[in-house]
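In the current project phase, the collection of sequences with tokenised folds has grown. A sample record is quoted in full directly below:
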Amino acid sequence: AEDGIRDIGVTGVQTCALPISVRAPASVSARTMFTLAGSVSQAPPGSTVQRQLKVNGTWQSRGAAVTVKGGNWRITVTAPRNPGTLTYQIVLVSGSKEIARSSAFVIRVN
């Protein structure tokens, strides 16, 4: 939606006025590197996006990236050694304040 969060291929709750797009693989092999990428509409270069992983029902920050021109961002992640599922969200922050949040998305580890 033009006034909410949008993940490519993922449906969920629309939470704010700065759309965050996310490109992520549906599945990865254990112990391999993969990339999460996307853009934040209208975010100036230098904005911080955090990768958050859901662990035991709680969101934990597990890495961050800084946006470049066009609000684009990219985060490289190493998959864990054990098969399972990873539930992520991307959060745009300013200092300690959350500005926008993507819908949660799942990556399967084989």
